[in-house]
Amino acid sequence: MWIDNFILRKETGNSAASIDAAAASVTVPANRDDTMPKNLTGTLNYLIAFPLLVPLLRMIGFLVREKEKKIKEGMKVMGLNLSAYYLSWIIHYIVVYTIIALLWTALTGNAGSAWRYSNKGLILLWYWLFCLCLIGMAFFVSAFFSKARPAVLSSLVFFFLLSFVEIPFLASMDPNPSVLAKTLASFSPIAAMSFSGNTILAFEAQEVGLTSDNINTLYGGYCVAIAMGFFIIDMLIFLLLGIYIDQVWPSAFGVRKHPLFCLRRSRKKRNKKLITDEEAGKRN
Q: What are the two backbone dihedrals, phi and then psi, of residue 26, each rounded to the nearest 5 degrees?
């Protein structure tokens, strides 16, 4: 203490200056160890993704059953536009998954849940975007089949294969996993959901949760913003591939299009050009 007093007197120029020490008690909150986020890490495939198999398999079954019973071909014969057909399915299941996402967020966003500290709007968006991936996945899987039962069984296998993408990362003991490797693995929406879910659980363990401030924060080589971006990318990839394959893949029903049909001009445009050329020839 005398060294502190010496420095104080020298700096202030007051020979009587001194430091009076005192002890006081300070109340601090009791230490809490929230084990729920730690216990849930690595189990989100089973708690979030797998229950959504029910609406996914129903959609795939209905899509293929329409082909199996020639309902789709019948509607096309009666003049149904393919864009209207696909949009009807997409809009219907967007509504279905929106209702599921709202109910899920309401049930899991209370004080005793795993997302108690997170922004409920961001949790809803995260879950809803993952649900939209399943719409694209349903179109993709159903495009390869003309029978409902093989389609449903194959979709189960495909779903499990996508969930296995994260296993090497769970088995790895590397404390600093590659951001690039996890980003590439996000082409599997189930892996992206699991990676980002583990990141949210880590924020929950810190009593912070997912917020707009940490949505881009890397934890374990991953951030929630990457997952949300890949949910949109995966949905578009599955959806566009599914619609394309549905029109060119050999099937027992309907007429298959040429693999490069999307690069050809439509018949209406060709007929319009022919009519224009004929009219120009008559004028000359």
A: -125, 130
Question: Per-residue confidence at 247, pLDDT binned at 50, 70, 90?
Answer: confident
CB-based contacts of 112: which residues, under 8 Å, 6+ apart?
Answer: none
* Length of the chain (residues): 284
Cβ contacts of residue 220 below 8 Å, gap of 6+? 177, 195, 198, 199, 202
Residue 238 — very low, low, confident or very high, per pLDDT cuts 50/70/90? very high
More confident residue, 102 or 205: 102
Query: In the predicted model, is pLDDT for residue 273 greater than 60?
Result: no
pLDDT digits (tens, 9 = 90+) for 20-37: 777 777 776 666 666 666
Query: Alpha-carbon distance 111 to 160, whole Å?
Result: 32
Q: Is 22 helix (H, G, I), strand (E, B) or coil?
A: coil
- Residue 236 CA to residue 239 CA, distance in Å, equals 5
Closest CA to 48 of 128, 139, 120, 136: 128
**Contact at 8 Å (CB) between 52 and 190?**
no
As a whole number of angstroms, the distance between CA 123 and CA 127 comes to 6
Closest by CA to 208, choosing from 71, 115, 93, 79, is 115
Q: Which amino acid is at 48?
A: I
For 249, residues 6+ apart whose C-beta sits below 8 A from its C-beta are 143, 144, 256
The encoded tokens of residue 284 equal 């000359």
The per-residue pLDDT for range 124-178, each reduced to its tens digit, is 999 999 999 999 999 999 988 888 899 999 999 999 899 888 888 877 767 777 8
Q: Determine the Cα angle at 55 with ends 51 and 57, to 5°.
A: 95
CA distance 128 to 96: 11
Strand, helix or coil for residue 107: helix
Distance CA 161, CA 164 (A): 5
